[in-house]
Every structure is written in C-alpha cells, then in structure tokens.
Amino acid sequence: MGSADRMRVAADICAEQAKQRPVAIVVSAMSKVTDLLLDTLRKAEAEDRAALVANLQNLEERHTQCCMDLLPAGKREPVLEGIRGIIAEFQRIAQGVMMLGERPPRSVDEAVAVGERLSALLMAAYLESAGVPAQAVNARDVVVTDPVFGNATPLMGPTREKARGVLCPLLEKGVLPVVTGFNGATTDGRPTTLGRGGSDFSASILASVLDATDLWIWTDVDGIMSADPRLVPNAKVLDEITYAEAAELAYNGAKVLHPRTLAPLVEKGIPVYSKNSFNRAVPGTKIAPKVDAPLGARAVTSMGNVALVAVEPADPELNSVMVMSRALAALATAGAEVLAMTSSSYRQNFCFLIRRDELPHAMAALETTFALELAHGYLKDFDVDEKVGLLAIVGEGMKGSPGMAGRIFTAISREQVNIIAIAQGSSELTIAIVVARDGLEKAVRAVHDECQLGN
Fold first, then answer.
1. Closest CA to 449 of 181, 236, 276
2. Residue 309: which of 240, 261, 360 has the closest Cα?
3. Could you say which architecture CATH assigns to the domain 4-208?
C-alpha cells in the first residue's frame, strides 16, 4: 500500500481472487504515514504549530495525489471529500492534544488509525472504478477489544458477532469489504489499536471469526527465509513452517508475522500464506499447524538492538527467587519483553535480554523496585551490556536431535565469537545464544552453514 501503483497491484490481486470465492480485504496505511501521524501528535504536544500545519499539509497532499493517480476524473471528488473529512477529524484530535499539552492514549489510538482509514477509502474507490463492488469498513465497527490503548487484545466472541453482522451481508452480495487494519474499539465504542504487527493481526482475527479457509499476507519479500539474506547470501525461502516456528522466528527478530498474528488461527488450524506482491509468481511460505520437514534446524535469525542486564545479590540471605520474581514484575510494568533469560544456581545471579529501546523504562522500573536493596548494598548495581546480539536457531525438528547444540556452539567458536549466555526452553524448539555484537553476523553465517540451511 505504499503508492498508487502498489494499490493497483493489491486491488488486482483481490479482484482476481474474488472471482473464485468470497474475499475480505484488510489494508494497512500507506508507507510512513503512521510515523507521520505520530510525529504530528508529538509536534502538537510540544505546541509546534508550524510543524503541525506542515505535517497536515503533507498528509493531505500525499493522499490527494494518490487519489488523482488512481481514479479517473469523474470518480475523484467524493473520494477527495472523504480524504478531507478524515484528515479534519485527525486535525481536531491534534488540536486537542495541543490544548492539553499531552497525548492521552485514547486520543492517540483514534488518531493513528487515520492512515488505515485513508487507505481503505482509496482501495475501495479504486476497486469500484474498476467494476469490482467494494466498500470501505472501519474495523472500529467490527473488531471488539479490551481497553488497553496502544496494545489492545481482541475479544473474540463479541468480535465474531459484530464482524459477521457487518461483513457477511457484504460478502453474500458479492461486495469486497475493505477493512482497516490495526484498529478496533472497546465494547462501549472507544477506539483502540492492536500494537506491533497490527494489520496482520487484524487479518488473522477476521479470518478466525469468519471461519476463513485460509489467510494470505502480501508483503515485499518472497516468503519466510532460512536467514536474513543481507547477512547470508545463500539463504533460501522456506516452503512451509509451523505456527510455532513462525512465532519463534518473529519473537527473535525475523521479519515475519508477529507472534500475536498467529494466535487466533491456531484453534481452527487456518493456514497462512506469506507472499510477495512484487513477485506474485513465487509460491511464498505456508504456515500451518504441522508440516512435513526433515529433523533439525529450519532457520536462524538475529537481533542487534538488544541489551543484557545482569542482576546479582550481594547478600546470600537475599532470596534469589523472590528477586527474580520482583524483577520480572518490574519489567512487565515497564512493558519490556524478555527475549532470553539465564540463571546461576550457586551465585544466585541471573541475566535477561531485552530490546535496547525498552532499556530506559526497564531500568527505571528495576531501580524503583529495588531502591531499598540497592541503597543498603543487598543487591549489586545492575550490570548492563549493550554491546551484545541475539542469535536464535529455530526448528521443531531439533527436539531429540543429539549433538545439535554442540555443533552450533562449535561452529560459533570456530569464528572466534564469544558466547555470553545460552537459553533453551524445554520444548527444544529454539536455542537462543547471546554473543558479542561485533561477532553476530559471523555467528549467523557460521550456524547457517553448519546446519546446511541453504541446501
């Protein structure tokens, strides 16, 4: 959805599929529009009126130009009026933020959904102009969530009732619903958003409540790969992976579906196809409950924007389990996601890996939680290492494969890369390894070659 040309391609894909079966469409905002909306709200909060006006002008000009490029002259005016109306709503919210001097989470959620609303309006209008019946639908009217603004969770029962009431009549009449991704509303109608990976998540929610036969996610890559091709030249597209493998890859940094995206699909076993809208002939990757794959690792992924935090009691009388429990509670309060965690039974210390951009809030929460212990020396100062990276090897076939971990560690050590921490769950689905940041890329290539993932 990055431009008028890409919208045409997306519309062609949908129209082609709609000839074969009923299709519902979920759209994201145009590229960089959500960032522009958030920046506008920040400018409003800072009372930067000139920047606010400039951003609003940019927003309107971009969508107006897209409309002009997409639609014939006789079809433009109602859509241009719609664009102006949606942007006027956003302007009202931004001006409210400027008056308050702050950004209430509820207002932010209502404002940032504007990008998807504009995309849905344009996509539906283009389909209509091409002779394909379509109608823009605000997900606020079909996806019901809890009131956690910025990262809401869908309430599947109420969503099923509302979505089927709104969308099924359109599908029965042969009309393509073009639903906004990323947003929803509480049971009493307050706008919410679904957090990271929101549009894909919206699509999986609707696929589940509509009892879809399958879900197609169209992106700009050929599918899910055995490694980042920028780091590993011989990385290959995986034909099939399981829900669990896809979730682990996403959790550990791969540019695939967000783990939340898959959750609504698991119970019904609805398969997902990750496909490339720039290269439609490529089959892409199928994500399903089970796949027929050889034993061993399937893919390796990495993250460089992480930090390792070590916690060590200075007093042996301090209960380390209690310290760990309180530390995890503090991280949860700060909204920090623990990517890996290891502990030492003798020294009673432990360390955990989090994203670097979550570090300031996480450390503030930890220091508040343990203020007394730090002040009296019961707990040593937290040791933070930002010069690390996370390497994760994923594959359901690793379970019960003897020698797998040894081969991986040996491959990394051959590259003279220091292993700092190791974590592996009881499922044996993922081996997570923390290494020095300057050796991360070498370690990824070494493990990919050792496990013959490019073959």
1. 236
2. 360
3. 3-Layer(aba) Sandwich (3.40)
Average pLDDT, stretch 257-269? 85
Backbone angles phi, psi at 25, to 5 degrees: -115, 140
Nearest one of 89, 102, 129 to 7, comparing CA atoms = 129
The answer to whether the CB of 63 falls within 8 A of the CB of 122 is yes
What H or E segment, with its residue span, contains residue 144? strand 144-145
Distance CA 210, CA 200 (A): 15
pLDDT at residue number 197: 65
Residues 160, 161, 164, 166: is their CA dihedral positive or negative?
negative
Using the CB atoms, write b or e for 420-442: b if 16+ within 10 Å: bbebbeeebbbbbbbbbbebbbb
**Backbone dihedral region for residue 47 (phi beyond 0: left; psi -120 to 50: alpha; all else: beta):** left
8 Å CB contact between 96 and 77: no
**If DSSP codes are grouped into helix, strand and coil, which group holds residue 434?**
strand
List the domain boundaries for the chain.
4-208, 299-450
For 126-135, the pLDDT digits (tens) are 999 999 999 9
How confident is the model at residue 353, as a pLDDT?
95
Q: Which of 245, 256, 167, 246 is nearest to 205 (CA)?
A: 167
Instruction: Provide the 3-class DSSP secondary structure of residue 55.
Output: helix
Q: Is 73 helix (H, G, I), strand (E, B) or coil?
A: helix
With tokens 């343990």, the residue in question is: 370
d(CA 333, CA 327): 10
| CA 95 from centre of chain | 29
396 pLDDT band, cuts 50/70/90, is confident
Q: And the tokens for 205? A: 């929610």
CA-CA distance, 27 to 176, in Å (whole number)? 12
270-307: burial string, b at 16+ Cβ within 10 Å, e else: bbbbbbbbeeeeeebbbbbeebebeebbbbbbbbeebb
Measured CA to CA, the distance from residue 433 to residue 445 in angstroms comes to 14
User: What CATH architecture does domain 299-450 belong to?
Assistant: 2-Layer Sandwich (3.30)
222 and 235 Cβ atoms separated by less than 8 Å: no
Going through 168-284 in order, the beta strands assigned E by DSSP cover 176-180, 183-186, 191-193, 215-219, 240-242, 272-276
